[in-house]
Amino acid sequence: MARLIFLGAPGAGKGTQAQLLSKVGHIPHISTGDILRHAVEQKTPLGVKAQAYMDRGDLVPDQLVVDLIQERLSQNDAQSGWILDGFPRNVSQAKFLDELLAEIEQDVHHVVNLEVPDQVLLSRLLERGRKDDTESVIQNRLQVYRNQTAPLIDFYSQRDKLVTINGNQSMESVTKELENLL
Ligand code: AMP
User: What is the rounded distance in angstroms from the CA atom of residue 131 to the CA atom of residue 13?
Assistant: First the structure.
């Protein structure tokens, strides 16, 4: 049983690693970005509200993701652990998560900070070619990460949850280090 949060800049490899680890650990990979992209594709009310923010590389309003996470963590498959990828994304989401977990009597075991130098992030994102991976949107997403998400590194290190992993090595080496956390 493991409950993990993956932090790290866009392009750090969070999604790929979270997906691999979720298979190894038999726990769901919960990616708010994936859920939102799916909602946008399906043109659900959530997707319609989120789309413009996502196209710009801005965070969608907290209330949208907070509701989504609360719903997702209440589902059956999430009772035996999870990997959160892309949530929380700012301090107020992290505080919300603290309160929610206290309410449902669960606790985060580790918060993984995947560290990758800026230059590498930029080239990885440009190669990936997702719809929100144009250069100006990428620059905005990196800026949003620095301003809003990076403060979570301190937030979780003060709570003794932080594990920093060098994300600038082969995919296999990163996976190996992560498997030790399960
Ligand atoms: P990601 O796939 O995690 O890079 O997320 C893609 C986009 O979805 C982000 O650029 C945001 O617009 C939005 N998003 C994903 N997770 C969150 C979150 N926790 N809070 C706000 N916006 C989010």
Answer: 17
pLDDT at 131 over 90: no
| Pocket flag, ligand 1, residue 11 (CB < 6 Å) | no
156, 28 contact by CB (below 8 A) = no
How many C-beta atoms surround the C-beta of residue 93 within 10 A?
A: 20
Sequence-separated (6 or more) residues with CB below 8 Å from residue 95:
none
Residue identifier of the C-alpha nearest atom 22 of ligand 1: 59
Q: Is the predicted pLDDT of residue 130 greater than 90, yes or no?
A: no
* Cβ atoms of residues 8 and 124 within 8 Å: no
pTM to 2 decimal places: 0.96
Which tens digits make up the pLDDT trace of 94-127? 999 999 999 999 999 999 999 999 999 999 999 9
Instruction: Measure the CA angle with vertex 136, ends 47 and 122; round to 5°.
Output: 100
Q: Compute, in angstroms, the gap from residue 157 CA to the centroid of ligand 1.
A: 22
